[in-house]
Every structure is written in C-alpha cells, then in structure tokens.
C-alpha cells in the first residue's frame, strides 16, 4: 500500500520548514526535509567587506545564537591575522558563550520540546499544572540572557566583542549580581535532570556518526579539536575532505554528509564525546534516571541539553570566582592587517559551527564559507525519519505526524541559520 504524508509547516521550531514522506508497505521510499525560508546569502555579501566587519555581520545570521556566530567569526579572523588573545579575553568569551548555551538549551528543552511529553500545546499551557517548572525555566533562560547582556553589552547581537578582546569590561557589581543568580538556580537546575530523565522518550536508537569538539581536561565549547565517534580527529584545515556540503533540489538549506551518510552534531554528540568530563554529582543523577551515555536516541538531545545547563552553571560559578579575583582592565591589541586565511569551529547551542574566511593584503574578504549546525544535521534527520517511520506502523496518520514533528523538534533546528547560503548559477547571453 502506498501512502504519502506531508507536514506543511513545523511548529515550535525556529523558522519555517516542511516534510514530505512517501511510503510503500510502511517502508519510506522518499523523504524530503524542505527548508523554504528565503536564502539570505551571507557569504556573498561578506565578499569585499573589511575583516573587522565580519563578526558583527555574521552575528545577524541568527537572533538566538548570535553570540556563537560572532565568537566564531572573531576566532576565524584572528586565526587569519595570527592574533593571540589574553587569558582575560578567553575567560570572558567562555563566559559569554555559557550565557548563550544556557538560554538556548533551556529555550528548546523547556519551551519547545517539553510540551510534547506533558501533553500540552505550549509551555504557557503547562503553567496551570506545572507552575514551578515553568517559573524555573523562565529564570534559567533569563540567567543566560543576563550573562550575554553583561559581558556582551546586550542580550542579542553582542556589541562589546571585538578582534583581540573586548571594548568594555563588565563591572564587579554586575558580576556579583550574576553570582547570586547562579547560586539560587543551581539546585533547581540539578532537579531538572530528574524531571527530564523521567520523561517517556520513544524507544528509538540508530547508529550514526556523532561529531563535536572533544575536550582534553574540560567540557569545551570554544577551544578543542573537532572529533568523530566513527573516525576520530577531523582536521579543520582539511574540513572539505571530511564534510561534503550539498544543496538538495527541494530545499533552500544546504545539507552535509560524511562518507556518503549523515552525521549528528549538538548536545547529544557533545555528551557522547565528553561525558567523562562532567562532574561526578551530575553522573550520579544521570545514573539514577537509567539513561546511559554514549546514547543513540535523538529524542534525548533535550536531556543532554539539560545536563549541559547544570554543568555550565557549575562552570559559570567557577568563572565568576576567577573574574572576581582578577583585576579586569581594558586591553589594547595591536596587530598587523595582512593577507591570510582563517578557519574556526566552535560549539553553538545546536552543534558544531564552522566559519572560513580568506583576506587579501588590505584585510578585505575574498572568500567566505559558513557551515551551520542545522545544515550539518539535515541529512541525519532525514535518515532518522527513514529508520523511525516503520516503527510507527499501526498508528493513525495523525499520530504518525505528531511523532515525526516530535523527532524533528528534538534536533532543535535553527532554520534561519541554515538558509544562509544558496548557490545560483546565472548565465547571461
């Protein structure tokens, strides 16, 4: 029996996308995850821009992960110009990144994914029966936004970050106010591990390639080698040999594959590669839930995000203590503008984010390439759908549609990020 399923618009995701499925006797014959937001052509309009315009421009790719884009752009420019930053700058950048990861992880896990498991259309609808849960979710997200605001100058599209450092240093008073928020929320963040660990996740696992930065001594988001669970170290200077980008005919977003297959980036990949680096008390809480890592169930991306939030609150307290004991001061970073090529990979909330630029001797962009986490995940989502849909045999079309919504939502796709580029071949006679 042949059957077609079309989801015309996803709900509770960032951006606009649709899904088309063609089945025959419950086997998926065709799947098309179509991202139909208009292409935004960031790489094209970066060409000819000055090196110092790159970070604020790329920040506008997304309002949710603007700090990740600006930090990745900064590091790529600095790599091209051979610029070394101070320990103070590295610490403040890590703290800024913590703010973004916390607010974005909470946004997805608590506001977009959680209603699927508690039988509600939205988090607002949960407030009647789960008031404290919703309240804590809002406070955790506010904490993340406040970190970005205090370190970056505002909660969206930071303005204090600059090549080689920061234009303004956060005050001691603002850092002390954050410290109180961290301490007040730490226990509740740990409790969220129990809450998310008790949810009834679909029984679905699939072998795939998990890719993320892998730390040596700590769980890293900015400075660590990109690593695959299948093949080990991915040499960033040769990333095009490891990651193949392509544009499906039915989508305005690029997709990626490795060795002809999809791969996963994001919180679950980070947890699979770095689980041994989180605190022992977090591991004890996780063990009580019965969830194990490494884990191959994409629905547990939300659980991994919540574990990261708890871990980052602990790390944030450590950074605050270090910043309070440091005499923070404005820095001048003198450097020579020169021809160069810079590549940087960091962990955005949704996974590995790559920026690649080439500059001429005047510091103007001659080449730009940006690979976003959602572009990296697109192929893997389709492969998950192919494997998951036959397990839904016997369910109604409405139930199948809901389960597919839930699977795609689990990845926390950032569709606006993914439509940053489109190759257009135009011939004029």
Number of domains: 1
Question: How far is the N terminus from the C terminus?
Answer: 49 Å
Number of discrete helical segments: 14
Helix content: 40-55%
How much is the radius of gyration in Å?
21 Å
The biggest beta sheet is recorded as: 4 strands, mixed
- Beta-strand residue percentage: 15-25%
- Which structural class is indicated by helix and strand composition? alpha+beta
Write down the CATH class. Answer: Mainly Alpha
CATH topology: Cytochrome-c3 Hydrogenase, chain B
What is the CATH superfamily?
Answer: Cytochrome-c3 Hydrogenase, chain B
How confident overall, as mean pLDDT? 90
pLDDT under 50 segments (min length 5)? 418-429
List SSEs in N-to-C order: EEEHHHHHHEEHEEEHEEEHHHEEEHHH
Using the 3D structure, state the CATH architecture: Orthogonal Bundle
Structure overview:
By secondary structure, the protein is of the alpha+beta class. Helices cover 45% and strands 16% of the residues. Helix 3 (66-81) packs antiparallel against helix 4 and helix 7 (172-197) runs parallel beside helix 10.
Task: Write out key terms for the chains shown.
429 residues, alpha+beta, Cytochrome-c3 Hydrogenase, chain B, three-stranded antiparallel β-sheet, globular
Short description:
Helices cover 45% and strands 16% of the residues. The protein has 429 residues and is α+β, with helices and mostly antiparallel strands.
Write the layout of secondary structure elements.
Blueprint (H helix, E strand, L loop, with lengths): L1 E6 L9 E8 L2 E9 L6 H5 L7 H6 L6 H16 L5 H32 L4 H4 L4 H22 L8 E2 L2 E2 L5 H26 L11 E5 L12 E3 L3 E2 L5 H4 L1 E3 L8 E3 L5 E2 L2 H8 L5 H10 L11 H24 L15 E9 L2 E9 L5 E7 L1 H16 L8 H14 L4 H4 L11
Parallel strand pairs: 6-11
Antiparallel strand pairs: 1-2, 2-3, 4-5, 6-7, 7-8, 9-10, 12-13, 13-14
